[in-house]
Every structure is written in C-alpha cells, then in structure tokens.
Design brief:
By secondary structure, the protein is α+β, with helices and mostly antiparallel strands. The protein has 10 helices and 18 strands. The strands form 4 sheets. It has a 6-stranded mixed sheet with strand order 6-7-8-3-9-10, sandwiched between helices. A 5-stranded antiparallel sheet has the order 13-17-14-15-16, with no helix packed on it. Bound molecules: adenosine-5'-diphosphate (ADP) and magnesium ion (MG). Magnesium ion binds at residues 61-62.
C-alpha cells in the first residue's frame, strides 16, 4: 500500500510494507590475500524479493553469499538482517538456509528422512517433524516420493528435495548458489519456472546466484550484475536489459552492439560509446526510403548471415565505420540480404550512451 499515510500504519510494526530491508550489505569487502573477491558492495534486499546476483565466474557472487550465510567473515563492512547486525554471528544463528548446486543428500536415507534431518538435529518432536517435512515436500510437489532413496530420483527431483530440506526450516531468507547448474537445459528451464512459483508460494526472500543471464532475466524481481567484486548495476530485469549502465552490463546481459568512434559521431551525431541491441534494429533492402521521425538510420553492407532457425543474424559493416549485428525474426523462411546493401534503422531511444 504505497500511498497510505505513514501515520495510519505506525501502529503495525509487523506490516511488511513498512519493514526495512530483509538484508542490508554496507561497504562489504572480502580479501583473500591480494585477491579482492568482494570489493565494496552496498545492497538492500527487501523481504519477499526474488533477488539474483549475476556475473561471470570469479566475480565474487559465491563469496557474497558465503558472507551472508556466515561461512566466511567480512574483511570490512556490515551485514544486517532486519536491521540487526549479524556480521559476526555463526551460520546457525542466522535465519538463513543455503541450497548449493551439489545438493549432497544423504544417500542411505529416504527423501522424507533427508528433509526431516535438520529438524531432528534441532530436536523437533517426531510428529511435528513428519508434518513439516510433508508440508515442505508438498511445496516442491514431491509428497508422493517420501519413501524413495535419492538414487531413485531424477536430477531435478533431487534438487527439489534439497530445496525442501532448506524450506523445512522456514528460514526468512533462502540462499541459492547456482542450484540448477547441474541440470540439462530443458530441465533447467522447467525448474526455473517452478522455483519462481515456489518462491511466490512461500513468500520468503530468495537470494539466487547464477552466471546465466537468461536464468536471471526469467526468474528475478531484481538483478545485481557483478563484475570483479563490485556491483555494476542493480535493477529489475527490463531495466538491466533495456538500460544497461555500462558496456560491461550491455555485453554480459544479452548481446549488444557497441558503436563508438567515427561511426557513432556520424550515425548518432555525437561522440561517445553507444549500445544498441541487435533485435531493436530493422534491416531493409530499400536504401532510398528516408528514416522515419524519431528514428536513427545508417547504411551499410551485409558481410555475414547466420541462419539460426527462429532468427537470422546479420553482420553489417556501416558506411560510416563500425559494425552492427542485427537479429531478424525468420518470418518468411529465407535469409535475405546476403552480401547486399542495406539500410538499418532503430528508434532513437534504442541507442544510448554507456561508459
Ligand atoms: P563467483 O562465485 O562469482 O564465481 P567467487 O566468489 O567464488 O566468484 O570468487 C571470487 C574471487 O575470489 C575469485 O578470484 C576466487 O578465486 C577468489 N576466492 C574465492 N574464495 C577464495 C578462497 N577461499 N581463497 C582464495 N581465493 C578465493
Ligand atoms: Mg560461484
């Protein structure tokens, strides 16, 4: 209820709308000798958000997750859960659970026993343990698999057991480190949708690590793009994709053209480095037609055509200098413009300056 006056809600301290961030990282650093694995991270993650940390291998994602979980202590900076500093608390005193890619289920235990295990350690009474495990298994749609052994499950089902094992503890925050990385593409895509649905059902905060941009775009409420221990940009998927803040983000999240130098000066009309997504560019064999109002255009020669089934990708050498990649929906079943002269055009706002 964003338009409610603060005075009306002050009586309800538990109201989610008024709560501060579930997790707040301030000036977070982690150094391993000379390696600055995490190099000054500031981040607020509100409760109930599906938050992704996206970045190439070695960019510091796992280290941030381990700091949040308490497996490592920060070199500098603070970690708060619901406004409380937890930076020095051991993992078991933090209200989080972690799901790794290597789900490490106990092979000799049944699915039910695996899920109950954490509760048994906490000496939760038997009946309650059963009920909570069954509830967690229902959440991941495995309620009929309780008596099986992990070896009798598919990879996706095993990953769901690992998820149930974390959910059974009812943590406020679930940390997931590339949990779908071991699954093949089809299964991974199915699990992405399922995981997102589970997160909506349980409503707890998910902090999800991935190096896969499609995965981050598909699943997240917001994404932080990591590069070299730092966050380059934080925002909803559309914002990170449509308005990348840097050349790095433009290149890592989707593919993007970068136009600079003389090409940019001539085509855009001012110097700088500009990002243009390949699918935003229209390609046309008719060079005589002038650019429509509010559009930027450039002529060039097709130097390469890649037929990819659903789409066709053209590489175009601009007359003004530089090269643009263009993706066209394959609506007519032919790869046109081979080696031809073409005119490219796009809406002005689709080329924008990046650092
Ligand atoms: P990501 O999860 O994004 O792939 P990591 O957080 O695992 O990246 O690693 C970030 C950087 O920190 C890498 O250069 C990695 O080699 C280094 N690093 C991570 N853990 C350790 C460690 N325990 N000792 C030394 N270097 C480490
Ligand atoms: Mg990692």
């Amino acid at each position: 209820m964003p338009n409610q006056a603060p005075s009306e809600t002050r009586e309800e301290p538990a109201a989610l709308e008024n709560a501060g961030p579930a997790i707040r990282l301030s000036g977070l650093r982690k150094h391993f000798g000379d390696v600055h694995a995490v190099d000054g991270v500031d981040l607020d993650i509100p409760p109930g958000e599906f938050f992704s940390m996206l970045g190439p291998s070695g960019s510091g994602k796992t280290t941030v997750l381990r700091l949040i979980a308490g497996f490592d202590l920060p070199t500098e900076g603070t970690i708060e859960f619901d406004g409380h500093d937890v930076g020095r608390l051991p993992p078991f005193e933090r209200d989080v659970n972690t799901v790794f890619q290597d789900y490490a289920l106990f092979p000799h235990m049944s699915v039910q026993q695996n899920v109950e295990y954490g509760l048994r350690v906490k000496r939760v009474p038997k009946q309650q343990r059963r009920e909570r495990a069954l509830e967690a298994l229902k959440t991941v749609r495995l309620e009929d698999y309780g008596s099986r052994k992990p070896a009798q499950l598919s990879g996706g089902q095993r990953q769901r057991v690992a998820l149930a094992r974390a959910l059974v503890n009812r943590p406020k925050v679930l940390l997931l480190d590339e949990p779908l990385g071991a699954l093949d593409l089809k299964l991974r895509q199915a699990m992405q949708l399922e995981l997102k649905q589970i997160q909506r059902d349980v409503g707890i905060t998910f902090v999800f690590v991935t190096h896969d941009q499609d995965e981050a775009l598909t699943m997240s409420d917001r994404i932080a793009v990591f590069n070299d221990g730092k966050i380059e940009q934080v925002g909803p998927p559309e914002e990170v994709y449509e308005r990348p803040a840097s050349a790095f983000v433009a290149g890592f999240v989707g593919t993007s053209n970068l136009l600079g130098g003389r090409g940019a000066e001539t085509v855009i009309g001012r110097p700088g480095l500009f990002s243009i997504r390949p699918e935003k560019i229209r390609i046309d064999g008719d060079l005589s037609e002038p650019a429509a109002v509010g559009h930027t255009s450039a002529t060039g020669t097709v130097t390469d055509v890649v037929y990819a089934g659903a789409t066709v990708r053209y590489s175009v050498a601009l007359d003004a200098g530089g090269r643009l990649s263009v993706v066209r929906q394959n609506t007519d079943g032919t790869a046109q413009f081979g080696d031809g002269r073409v005119r490219l055009s796009w809406r002005d706002e689709h080329s924008f300056q990046v650092q």
